[in-house]
C-alpha cells in the first residue's frame, strides 16, 4: 500500500491495476473472480427451486445450504489473491461505527418492509425445526455462519466491488468508489433487490451498502454492515420463529 493510499482509502490499490491481477484467460479475469462465487451461489438457488418443482420439500433441501456455502467459500479461497480490495487496511473507528449503523438500520427496515407489494411472492424460507418443533441448532449455526460470514464477502465483491463500479466504467478496477454516479448506484441497487424475495427491502439495503462503500472507499465497510444485518437478522428469526425471512 502506498503512502497516498494510506492517506486516502478512495485510491484503488496498486495491486488492483498491476499486471499481477491482469486477465490470463477467462477464469483469470478480475471480473470472473468476483462473478463466479456469486454465480455458484445463484446456481444452487436455481437447483433448489428445480428440485422443489420435482416434489422435494423445503425441509428435504435444508442440507443443500451447507453445500452451497462450502462451494462459494471454495471459490472465494481459490480467487483470494485477486481480491486486492480486501487487502489489509485499517477501517478506523468512525468507519466501523458507520458500518454498524447502516447494518442495524437495514435490519430494522428489512423486518418491517414486508407489505404484499414489497414481496416477489411467498417464501418457504429456511425452517430448522424437526417434526416435533425442536430447533436443530446445527442447521441454525450453519445458516447464520454462512449468512453472516460468507455471503457478505461474496455479495459485496460482486454487487459493490464489481457491478457498481463496472456500470460506471468497464475498467472497473481503476474506478474510485467515490467516482461512481447515481445511475450506477440505482441500477445495482435495484438488481440487488430483485435477487431477494423481499425485493423492496433489498433495494433499500443495496442503496445503503452502496452509499457506504462510495463514502468510505473501503469494501470492508459494506461487508461489515452486511454481516451485521445478516447476523442480527438470523438471531431475530430464531428468537421469533419467523422462518420465512430466511
TrEMBL record:
Domain of life assignment: Bacteria
Ranges for the region named Disordered are 1-23
Membrane-crossing ranges are 35-56, 62-79, 91-111, 135-154, 175-193, 199-216, 223-245
Give the Gene Ontology MF terms in alphabetical order: endopeptidase activity
Signal peptide range = none
Cited InterPro entries: Prenyl_protease-related (IPR014346), Rce1/LyrA-like_dom (IPR003675)
Q: Does the keyword DNA-binding apply?
A: no
Q: What is this protein called?
A: CAAX prenyl protease 2/Lysostaphin resistance protein A-like domain-containing protein
Domain CAAX prenyl protease 2/Lysostaphin resistance protein A-like, chain residue ranges per copy: 141-231
Compositionally biased residues, Polar residues: 1-21
Keywords, sorted A to Z: Membrane, Transmembrane, Transmembrane helix
Gene Ontology biological process terms in this record: CAAX-box protein maturation
Amino acid at each position: 500500500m502506498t503512502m497516498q493510499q494510506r492517506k486516502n482509502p478512495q485510491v484503488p490499490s496498486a495491486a488492483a491495476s498491476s499486471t499481477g491481477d491482469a486477465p490470463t484467460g477467462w477464469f483469470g479475469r478480475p471480473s470472473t473472480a468476483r462473478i463466479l462465487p456469486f454465480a455458484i451461489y445463484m446456481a444452487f438457488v436455481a437447483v433448489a427451486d428445480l428440485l422443489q418443482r420435482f416434489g422435494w420439500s423445503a425441509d428435504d433441501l435444508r442440507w443443500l445450504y451447507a453445500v452451497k456455502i462450502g462451494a462459494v467459500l471454495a471459490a472465494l479461497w481459490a480467487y483470494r489473491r485477486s481480491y486486492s480490495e480486501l487487502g489489509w487496511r485499517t477501517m478506523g473507528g468512525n468507519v466501523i461505527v458507520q458500518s454498524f449503523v447502516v447494518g442495524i438500520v437495514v435490519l430494522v427496515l428489512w423486518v418491517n418492509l414486508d407489505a404484499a407489494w414489497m414481496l416477489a411472492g411467498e417464501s418457504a424460507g429456511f425452517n430448522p425445526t424437526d417434526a416435533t418443533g425442536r430447533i436443530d441448532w446445527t442447521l441454525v449455526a450453519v445458516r447464520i455462519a454462512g449468512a453472516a460470514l460468507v455471503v457478505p464477502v461474496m455479495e459485496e465483491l460482486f454487487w459493490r466491488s464489481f457491478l457498481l463500479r463496472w456500470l460506471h466504467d468497464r475498467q472497473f478496477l481503476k474506478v474510485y468508489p467515490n467516482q461512481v454516479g447515481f445511475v450506477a448506484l440505482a441500477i445495482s441497487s435495484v438488481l440487488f433487490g430483485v435477487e431477494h424475495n423481499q425485493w423492496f427491502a433489498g433495494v433499500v439495503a443495496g442503496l445503503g451498502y452502496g452509499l457506504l462503500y462510495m463514502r468510505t472507499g473501503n469494501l470492508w465497510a459494506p461487508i461489515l454492515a452486511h454481516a451485521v444485518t445478516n447476523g442480527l437478522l438470523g438471531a431475530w428469526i430464531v428468537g421469533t420463529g419467523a422462518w420465512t425471512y430466511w
